[in-house]
Amino acid sequence: MIDFKEKIAVLLEAQTEGISIDDIRAMIEIPADSKLGDYAFPCFRLAKVMRKAPALIAAGIAESLQGNDLFSKVENVNAYVNFFLAREAYVKEVVEAVNAEKEQFGGSSLGEGKKVIVEFSSPNIAKPFHIGHIRSTVIGNSIYKLYNFLGYDTVRVNHLGDYGTQFGKMITAYRRWGSEEDVKREPIKTLLSYYVKFHEEAEQDPALEDEARATFTKLENGEEEEVRLWQWFRDESLKEFTRVYKMLGIEFDSYAGESFYSDKMDRVVQMMEDKGLLKESDGAQIVDLSEYNMAPALIKKSDGSTLYITRDLAAAIYRKEHYDFYKNLYVVASQQNLHFQQWFKILELMGFEWAEDCVHIPFGLVSLEDGTMSTRQGRVVFLEDVLNRAVEKTREIIIEKNVNTDNIDVTAKQVGIGAVMFQELSNGKIKDYVFSWDKVLNFDGETGPYVQYTHARAASVLRNGGASAEAALADAGALDVSYICGDAAYELARLIYKFPAVVVEAAKKYEPSIVTRHVVDVAQAFNKFYHDEHILTDNESEKRAKLLLTYAAKQTIKNGLGLLGIEAPERM
Ligand code: ARG
Questions:
Q1: How many Å apart are CA 1 and CA 498, to the nearest integer?
Q2: Centroid of ligand 1 to alpha carbon of 331 (angstroms)
Q3: N or C terminus of the chain with fewer C-beta within 10 Å?
Q4: How close is the Cα of 332 to the center of ligand 1, in Å?
């Protein structure tokens, strides 16, 4: 698409003195109120160099640009030059671009040849996959989609928590009290109950702890029986996780979790040793980070076992060697801020310049309306249950509202799950938020169902447009766009035009909610256009032009929802 801002910058460069085009670009604003133009340029900074009052400079610029056919109007209001684009050329550019690029609209090849690893979700094996995990899962998936859409070579990694001393406990508990059948029937809940029982019993019988430690050592040494049980727990847990990922439409390229690094840590510890970073403390190996105002990082326990942080160090080094990443992103809760700060610092101290390409993308807590979750008090809400409930509730709403659908099961799934994901991605990610059913499933608020419904409405208009819609898309260049230059149509076109920039901004800031917000704006603008204008009129040229704009709005919403990982049903 034509970069109108750039065109204006070039024109301004010719009209000003003593200011670079980069500065001009940075100074051009997009007024929030379109009555002040599509773009505006403040002249305050020019006063010194040009030795003139800012308002005079602005007037001079406006004067010299009269008659330029890029604009319908250029005027100055005090020190500002306000640019009003010629609507026809602008709207034509927008609808033709969407029609040409279709599902690619908004994407680019900005990131070509650059590898970006997005690590997200990363639940712990044999522990509940609960509502708290939804954030990393859904935000991470969207960040992956954003980078992918911008042409980066992306790798989705699920850094499973599948290693550590707790597996010694779990194997011990299973051997004492376990039942194969129970684990098979309900793996996570059953394994969790063993874990809980282990802790209860160990209070009476401390020997259990020793047994668990010995068992973990056997696992680390690769003893067949321990490895077999651990592998089985892992497989069963993964089956449950995969079921949820499938419901969410999420996939991974790699499940290299913590256990994957079990044989890669010695080398890393040795590297730290060689750099003189390790210090002994009560038999354990630590890195003193007091100089950086951080607690010391425990790298190796006195019994020789490694830790979560050791595996993160090994994983980053492995990823650099294996993928040679441009960026290595971690979508992990803000509770782990210190952990990431610590090991990023250690990488830096180890002399890895690429440490700065590792980015922690933190997010806030999700809580439930009736108070926060607590695993200890048994108030765990399984993500799968939430998703199922969303689908069930949506099905009830569909029946109650008499929503038009040809397959209620499919629609209930698309809308119910889409609604939960949309809510996750609606708030700035760092904010804590409260999960609310009323907000999630509201068809009228700024919600997933509202946006999906708008998309389906546009689809229905296009279906009803029939041959005229087909003709409009087939020969977009020949349409008379003067019919789509009214205020409602123009506002809609402006928002569509902005979409590619929104995608870039959301990726740069690791903030999918910027896309969510924009998709809501486009949906609202389309609904206004739909109400203000009669789309399927008898005037064939008018109808075609309006159908093309309808198509552009629909495609933009669909592409936006796609970046959030949400489906866009054709009917509902
Ligand atoms: N398994 C961890 C948890 O559930 C999250 C892992 C985050 N990723 C990482 N590379 N440390 O808390």
A1: 10
A2: 9
A3: N
A4: 7
Residues 511 and 429: beta-carbon distance below 8 Å: yes
- pTM for the whole thing? 0.94
| Structure confidence by residue, pLDDT tens digits, 301-329 | 998 888 999 999 999 999 999 999 999 99
Are the CB atoms for 374 and 342 separated by under 8 Å? no
Query: How high is the pLDDT of residue 371?
Result: 58
If you compute the radius of gyration of the chain from its CA atoms, what whole number of angstroms results? Answer: 29
The residue to which tokens 């954030």 are assigned: 135
- In this predicted structure, what is the pLDDT of residue 517? 97
Q: CA–CA separation, 359 vs 322, rounded Å?
A: 18
Which residues lie across from 231 on neighbouring strands?
Answer: none
- Of 458, 456, 454, the residue nearest 446 (C-alpha): 454
Chain segment 474-504, per-residue pLDDT in tens: 999 999 999 999 999 999 999 999 999 999 9
Q: Tokens for 178? A: 């376990």
Question: What does residue 387 show for φ and ψ, rounded to 5 degrees?
Answer: -65, -40
Give φ, ψ of 76 to 5 degrees: -110, 140
- Told to judge if 320 belongs to the known catalytic residues of this protein, a careful annotator would answer no
* Catalytic position from the list 114, 115, 127, 345: 127
Q: Evaluate whether 313 touches 268 at the Cβ level (below 8 Å).
A: yes
Distance CA 461, CA 570 (A): 11
Q: Which two tokens stand for residue 57?
A: 């400079």
The H or E element spanning position 570 is none
How far is the C-alpha of 571 from the C-alpha of 404, rounded, in Å? 7
For residue 155, the model assigns a pLDDT of 98
Nearest to 245 by CA among 184, 169, 183, 160: 160
Pairing of strands 80-85, 39-42: antiparallel
Residues with CB under 6 A from ligand 1: 119, 122-124, 159, 161, 312, 330, 332
Q: How many CB atoms lie within 10 A of CB 48?
A: 10
* Cβ proximity of 557 and 519 under 8 Å: yes
- Range list of H helices, 275-406: 308-323, 337-349, 383-401
Please report, in angstroms and rounded to a whole number, the separation of the first and last CA atoms in the chain: 32
Instruction: Report CA(194)–ligand 1 centroid distance (Å).
Output: 22
**Beta pairing class for 80-85 and 71-77:** antiparallel
Give the residues of the chain that fall short of pLDDT 70.
370-379
Q: Which candidate in 133, 145, 455, 498 is catalytic?
A: 133
Between CA 318 and CA 477 the distance in angstroms is 51
Which residues have C-beta within 8 Å of that of residue 379, sequence separation ≥ 6? 371, 373
In terms of C-beta density within 10 A (0-12 exposed, 13-18 middle, 19 or more buried), how is residue 395 classed? middle
By three-state DSSP, how is residue 71 classified? strand
User: Residue 379: its pLDDT value, please?
Assistant: 62
Q: How many residues does the chain have?
A: 572
